[in-house]
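[Automated response] Your request has been received and processed.

Submitted sequence:
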Amino acid sequence: MATTLVKTDFEFPGQTAVYHGKVRDVYTINNDIMVMIATDRISAFDVILPEGIPYKGQVLNQIAAYFLDASAEIVPNWKLAVPDPMVTVGLKAESFPVEMIIRGYLTGSAWREYKNGCREICGVKLPDGMRENERFPEPIITPTTKAAEGHDENISREEIIAQGLVSEEDYKVVEDYTRKLFALGSKMAQEKGLILVDTKYEFGKRDGKVILIDEIHTPDSSRYFYAEGYQERFEKGEAQRQLSKEFVRQWLIDHDFMGKEGQVMPQMTPEFVESVSDRYIELYEHITGRKFVKAEGADLAARIEGHVTDCILNLKK
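Generated structure:
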């Protein structure tokens, strides 16, 4: 089994803060630059799973960089450089405390709620009679709060503005950017024989301007179906072939784990871990059209530290 990076503890030049998230570790340099390290940790149901996934961090980071570059002309973003396969360095922004989730199809948590009788999500009314994996006439935006710990909570556009989480002026920009990014991501997925089913975006503000931050269109933040056979499977009520983290969630559900109190995390066998790694690599190659090149290095931390330090020193010049 390949080496994984599940924990970081760096001291970079000019480091002023560090934040360890569920999957990413973010280091702040001189209160102005962000060093975002995509670790090999994997989370589901807001719980970090006990085993790291080989090459997962590299996959996430390189897919995100690919889409940040592709969308930069329509939505400004934070990215400055990718000094290491697992690292993106970019501009620090004041992040909005909401995640913009946009859905093109009724699936995942939205379907689970709908199946239980829910007909309104985040202030968006849903018609009766929809089926699992059915396409919405138009994509719907269903934001959530960004919880530091525990579960994110659904929230409506009106509640976001009323609570002052995002101003009405900024929210209009964020909503517009969300739709533009989803349209571009859907088009790029379609060209590769995939359907971008749903995804999430995070935004912040820097120098008075709204910018896209964090990752974009990765299997951790997005769900993809294979376009071939979608309609036939939908009509038969069969599960869709998908490239996303949903198969990990489904594996956990099948083993009676949904992150609820008293539930026991199932054992992740080496075979299962390898299969998850293979799925991540498959998505990278499918969505980018590029061959995935496994970055070598027995000591991932030392490799990253050297690359990031060089990058920081060059940015100061």
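Summary generated for your ticket: Helices lie at 56-71, 108-115, 157-162, 168-191, 230-236, 246-254, 270-288, 300-316. The chain has eight helices and 17 strands.
If you did not submit this request, please reply to this message.
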